[in-house]
Hints:
The complex is a heterodimer of chains A (226) and B (293).
Chain A: H1 5-8, E1 12-14, H2 18-35, E2 39-48, H3 49-57, H4 59-67, H5 80-87, E3 90-95, E4 104-112, E5 117-126, E6 129-135, E7 138-142, E8 147-154, H6 159-169, E9 174-181, E10 187-194, H7 200-207, E11 212-218
Parallel strand pairs in A: 2-3
Antiparallel strand pairs in A: 2-4, 4-5, 5-6, 6-7, 8-10, 8-11, 9-10
Chain B: H1 7-16, H2 21-33, H3 37-57, H4 73-83, H5 89-107, E1 111-113, H6 123-135, H7 139-159, H8 164-167, H9 169-187, H10 192-205, H11 222-242, H12 250-263, H13 280-290
Helix pairs in contact in B: 1-2, 2-7, 3-5, 3-7, 4-5, 5-6, 5-11, 6-7, 6-9, 6-11, 7-9, 9-10, 9-11, 10-11, 10-12
Amino acid sequence: MDISIFNVLGPVMIGPSSSHTAGAAKLSKAARAIVGKPFSRVSFGLHGSFAKTYKGHGTDVALVAGALGLKENDDRLEGAFALAKEAGLAYEFYEIDLENMHENTVVMTFYLEDGTQAEIVGASIGGGEILIRRIDGFDTELRMNSSTLLICQEDKVGIISEISRVLAKHQINIGVMTVNRNSKGGTAYCSIETDSYLTEEVVKALRQVPNIISVRAINIIPEEEV
Amino acid sequence: MQMYNSIEDMLRISEAENKPLYQVILDNEARVSEISEEEIFKRLEKRYQVMEEAASRALTEERKTVGSLITGVTKIQYEYAKKGEGLCGSFLNIVMARALSCSEVNASMGKICAAPTAGACGILPAVLISLEEKEGFSRRKALEGLLVASGIGAVIMKNATVAGAEGGCQAECGVAAAMAAAAAVYLKGGTNEMAADSVAISLMNCMGLVCDPIAGLVQVPCAQRNASQAVNALLSADLALAGMKSPVPPDEVVDAMYRVGKLLPYQLKETALGGIAKTKTGQAIAKEIFGKE
Lengths: 226, 293
């Protein structure tokens, strides 16, 4: 038998729905980590089944909870609206029709305190699992189950090999890597999923690589629980 | 160590290696998850505590649910059970109250442990906790029961489905009942064969049960199904303990359940387009809650 009993007995979660509640909280919590800067307002565009049933499954409450940094099994989740008020976080929901996107997709726009905006698109794909599909207009496919590097760089020859060199030097194995650009020779975006913990040292070394605009490391520590 | 992929395999290994059923499941889990037995028991204990909390939380506290479809149903049932005048006796009435509590907690954004799903999260806790209380088992023994239940559940997940969208309610609440029945037989000292028969009997008892939630919410008839399938688990365990044998082996019954699930039209598989959800009143409730049908 290759199925763990804990796939049958679990997850431990806040009800009522693993996809519409637990997955929703996970999505906005992941988006918050990706944005990585203070924000005072967030808007959620709900697509498909999310748009149709969000009130019934507490998807709205869960999304706000995740934006506040709460985990999907946090007891405080149901009180997220009140917590947001206390924290001074404004939020809003609207329905949106996206083409060729998963039924449970949300567009999250973060209004940052520095006056800029960040937009993350992600889907809740079942059983509490998620997929980040777009970051600030760049397509990606991040499961957010392992530590992730997000690098914004000039679209120049040799930059990817330079990034690989730095990672290899720090003994970091690249699990999944996606690279995307908005135009030839313009700005490009690279996301790397890895099994290793991403230290401040690695991030600093990457920032020193010529033509790299920004580097963000999101460390995801595999949990169990006990 | 031998591998299993069916209930029949599990029983054969248990006999060949002269190990209790829970130990066969434990051995397999240690291999699959690459963790120690001690760690597995810790994780089981943690889940059991979540189950206990969910099974008691709504007994005395009404919980706010969307549309209030099941708000307070647990408290009413618990008051009735405590009077001890119920037709099914106070034990079964308490079992039903605990199952309802988990459903009410789940629907009101409380913490639950899916078993095997969130919609069916009340059946296993209601049966295990009530038996632990009634028969005075040690916690270790209750966790062994939890192992038996989840081992059976894993086999059904592999060979059939536990998703309402794929197999209807029989795959969610029905499988939960089968898991709980096997645990109940084990806890009461029945044989492996009796546990396997109780799995077959409980699944036969709810073959074809559809998933038809009003307004798509995990409330009605989900809460009622949690209560009734918890009772199904116990009566199936009793039938098996009494000596009833299922003429059809449990693995074949699991397969039949899966095939029936495939045959069910999509309207009866978690889409709220059939059954109780599609009744005049069911639709009116949905309209009231969402302002559209």
